Amino acid sequence: MSGWLEYDGIELTPEGALETILGNLPAPAAAEKPLYEAAGFILAEDVRCDIDMPPFDRSAMDGYALAGAFDSYRLTDEIPAGAAHPEPLTPGRAAPIMTGAPVPPGADRVLMLEKAALEDGRIVPGAPTGEGDNICRQGQDIRRGSTVLTKGFLLDAKAAGLAAMAGRTALKVFDRPALALMTTGSEVVPPSAVPGPGQVRNANLPMLLSLAFASGCVTSASLHVPDDLEETVEGARRLLSGADVLLAAGGISLGAYDHVAPAFEKAGVRFLFREVAMKPGKPFSFGLADGRPVFCLPGNPVSVFCTFQEFVMPALRMMSGFPDCRRARLSGTCRFTHRQKRGRTNLLRVKAFLDGEEWLLDMPPSNGSGDLMSAMDTNAIAICARDSDGVSPGDVLPFSLNSACVGERSPGWR
User: For the chain, what is the total number of helices (H) and then of strands (E)?
Assistant: First the structure.
């Protein structure tokens, strides 16, 4: 492993690999987006309100604006919402008023419509009223110049509405990185083709495209290359020319036809590590090309999915401005038996579910790195430590729920 990261001569652990990745990512890039497109992004600026909210004393409900405390009131003209300059009220007068309408000068309370009676042309309160009742005072909610949204906030529809109230039509957010995707293998044919002898359909590229789409990131380009060094070099150069992140699946092991590592190095990638002590995903590699992260995932579909969840998604979150980029580890009680050789952390595809307040974990009968069908009924990855011989029913394992979207709020992130 000359030239690769080592820790006291021991193979790089998954935890060490993640720290290496997160410690070498570029800073999030900011972009301005209209309010209706900003939900799910991290705010890259503080937002201050340019006016008081409400901007005037307004009625909190339909009813009557009253001037003073009297047994009955003489009616005056109605005040609808949007009235610019309502006539002042003198003591003993009442004006019908709509929710959100400005309270006229001289009025010091609003009587609910349901508590008013009309007797001989006068309004009679059906219950005592107090000064200030049902009036929202100017600046009561937000004072002019106050901060209503802070940098680092995960925007949602409510935040868009609040920003609009503060006078904004667009917001500066941390943009999500553009991804370029590559799959490899001369034996791999498109999903539309019927595989011939020795051939398999390309499951990785549609899966990576789906993961990228669901994550909320843009895919700038994608392609498949055969097991050819020069074609892989050319493909890497082409993808790197228009992307913030390059993801490749397959061809990263040490076989005679695994050309990704040397090809990527010729294309300008400097690898920081070339393997991780874990199963599946041992050949998982990470490097940089002019500061842009490059992830090389093993070719088995389950390895692609697991390494994307454990390493790529946290990186995408950090590059998108999320402070909570690491996957949260929950604890679950196993209902299965698993045996393993010591030396590599095992990433187990499990189905996690709550039984009351306790998380329980089930594992499908097959847990091979190429068996994507076995992962279909799973929703989490459990971590079986490298110094363990395995687990038995009743043992407790740390696990993380799988994530789809970079911007989601769930127990899967901390």
Answer: 8, 29
- Residues 322-337: tens digit of each pLDDT: 988 899 999 999 999 9
Looking at residue 214, its pLDDT comes to 85
Query: How many whole angstroms separate alpha carbon 81 and alpha carbon 233?
Result: 66
User: Strand 245-249 to strand 178-184: parallel, antiparallel, or no bridges (unpaired)?
Assistant: parallel
- Residue 338 dihedral angles phi and psi, to the nearest 5°: -140, 130
Residue with tokens 């020069």: 230
Closest CA to 304 of 254, 365, 369: 369
The angle at the Cα of 372, spanning 366 to 373, to the nearest 5 degrees, equals 70
| pTM of structure | 0.85
Q: Which residues pair with 118 in a beta bridge?
A: 123
Contact present, 150 and 192 (Cβ < 8 Å): no
Whole-angstrom distance, CA of residue 25 vs CA of residue 9: 25
Find out whether 400 and 412 touch, Cβ atoms under 8 Å. yes
70: nearest Cα among 29, 129, 15: 129
* Two structure tokens written together for 16: 């060490």
